């Protein structure tokens, strides 16, 4: 099974890096990119991705609200929050918005993605 | 002193106190805004480049085993990204406090700022010496703000001149453009110019802005030098 991924980040450098990682990670496929939470909500509705990689800090509704909306309407879609915050600096809502996991952006890569998808739980570094 | 004269003086004093309070509040707000800008620039600029570099380095390490050719291409791109990140750091440092101003003083820093301004600019700042850092920084950032305003609003074909000179007890500057000018309202300076005025006022100096439609704009200021 190929995991269909939506990458959501207002920062082009990270979207580009995520594109590269997904391009060489077997069984994962980038289906679309979005640069805002609002755009992500619309794309999830039309594309039904398996996994959403969601940046937290974006203008507009932001990643946490977008994750809340996506997980409420599409419970089969797994949402992973990403940011450059240390875990202890995350807003409380990050844990209650329905996202399955939190990942520091600099830890992002093929192996952790596989681990997350297989376990569908928080990665060890974010527990 | 007659009662009416005393009342007039008190009233004037009251107005000045209020102006000072407002100016201090604006300066605190401006300092906070500047801190937020730096935080944003760090987060949206350098930090994002570094994050992408970390991700790509991990990917290159992975590819080195499975696809060395692709790993090499990725490493070349990483080299390019490192240079971009370095440029971001340089730009941010420059916006906080230009190294040239610190090392070489106002005349050279103004010449460099003019060459990068969005409007053709001539600088006449010969004869300047070194001054206390707060004086140099205030005059520099005032001239920069005035030049940025000129570049934004003076119109196509406009040119600017920056002149700075000192007298025994004060440093003077003037930024003049021959652009479209504007209808002046004494109580309505733009945010940037108000901030300039506050900064100069805090050093005991004075800022003057004069403009008329089709007659260009002149921003000039004086900062006292302690003797």
Q: Would you give an account of this structure?
A:
The complex is a heterodimer of chains A (127) and B (227). Chain A is built from five helices and five strands. Chain A has one domain (3-122): 3-Layer(aba) Sandwich (Rossmann fold), CATH 3.40.50. The longest helix of chain A is centred in the N-terminal third of the chain and has 13 residues, at 12-24. In chain A, helix 2 (37-47) packs parallel to helix 3. Chain A has a five-stranded parallel beta sheet, with helices on both faces. In chain A, 39% of the residues lie in helices and 22% in strands. With 227 residues, chain B is an alpha+beta fold. Chain B is built from six helices and five strands. Chain B has helices at residues 3-66, 68-96, 99-104, 106-115, 133-153, 191-202, and strands spanning 121-124, 160-167, 170-177, 206-211, 217-224. Chain B has a five-stranded mixed beta sheet, with helices on one face. In chain B, helix 1 packs across helix 6 and helix 4 (106-115) packs parallel to helix 5. The mean pLDDT of chain B is 88. At the A-B interface, helix 1 of A face helix 1 and helix 2 of B.
